[in-house]
Design brief:
about 375 residues; alpha+beta; 5-stranded antiparallel sheet; 18 strands; globular
Length: about 375
Amino acid sequence: MAANTFGERFRVTTWGESHGGGIGVVVDGCPARLELREADVQPDLDRRRPGQSRLTTQRDEPDRVEILSGVFEGLTLGSPIAMLVRNTDARPGAYDHLRDVYRPSHADYTYEAKYGIRNWQGGGRASARETVGRVAAGAIARKLLATAAGVEVVAWVSSVHDIDTELDPAAVTRLQVESGPARCPDPQAAARMEAAIEEARRAGDSLGGVVTCVARGVPVGLGEPVFDKLDADLARAMVSLPAAKGFEVGSGFGGTRLTGRQHNDPFAAGPDGRPVTVSNRSGGIQGGISNGADVLVRVAFKPTGTIASPQETVDRDGRPVTLEAKGRHDPCVLPRAVPMVEAMTLLVLADHWLRHASDDVLSDREGAEDARG
C-alpha cells in the first residue's frame, strides 16, 4: 500500500492526482483553538501555484483552497482539518501519447512495475501537483509554530545550474526572496538565473539547482537522539519532494574539507546565561536535537525530466520510441520549490514541537507526583 501520510503527532495525508478533480490534504493533530482561516493558507499556495511567472509552467490554476472540516468560527477544533484545491485547468488529453511510453527520469516505469497500473495523465500521484497538499498543510504548521513558539521559516533559491550565491542566512527576508520570479534574494545572481532559465526553455532543455532554507527561533530540544533525529526527519522530508536528489544540514559536504578544530561550534554564555554556539556549522542541530541556533538546510533539485526536445525511450513492449514532450512544464523547478521546502521544514518542526511539548507535560506531571510522594 502506498504511504501517503507523514508525521507522528502532526500528521498529514495528501490525496488526489495531477489531472483529476482536485488535490487535497487532511491534517490531524493540530491543537484546538488555533486561529485559522483560508486566508492563512492561500498565500503559500499562491507562491507554489503554476503560471505565476514566465519561468514556470503556464498551466493556469488559481489553486483556491477550501477548508472542509476541523475549523469553526475561525478556530481549529482539534479534529482533522480537511482542505481541497480543485483542478480547473487539467488537460488529460495532452498526455494521450504517453499512455504506453515511459518518460526518461520519471516515475512512469517504476510506478507501473510496482503497482501494475499507473495514471499516465501528467504522472498522477507522482506529479509535483501533489505538493499542493503539503504546502497547504505547511501553512497551518507555519501559523502554529509562529503563534506558539515564534518560529520563522524562510527559503530561497541559492543556485541554478552553475550560478551560485552566498548570502548570510540570518539576514535573508521573505520580502527579498519574493522580489523577483527566480526567488533569489541576490539581485545580480537572480538576473543571471532568470536569463539562464529562459535560455534553457528556448533550447527545449531544463536546469536544476539548490534551495536553501533557514528556520529561526527553533527552541532547544526538538528531535530524538537515535532514529528520529531532527536532521534525519528533515532529510526524509526533503528527499520526498519531487525532483529532490540531495540534502545537507549546516556545513554539509563542505564540512568534510575542514578539520575538527575548524568545524566545531564553540559554546559561550548567551544573554540569558544559557549556552549558545558562537558559530553554526552544525546547522542548529547536534546529536539529532536542536540546540537553539538557526536550523539551516539545503536541498538539491535535478533538472526537470520533461523537456521540449526529442528523447529516446521505449514503450511498455520494449519498442524504441522517440519522445517529443507536449503539454506544459517547468524549465526549472527551483522557484516553485521554495514554498515546498518551507512546507516540509514546517511540517517536521511542528511534529517535533508537539512531541517535545508532550514530553514537557509528562515531565511536569512526573515532577508533581514526585513532590506529592
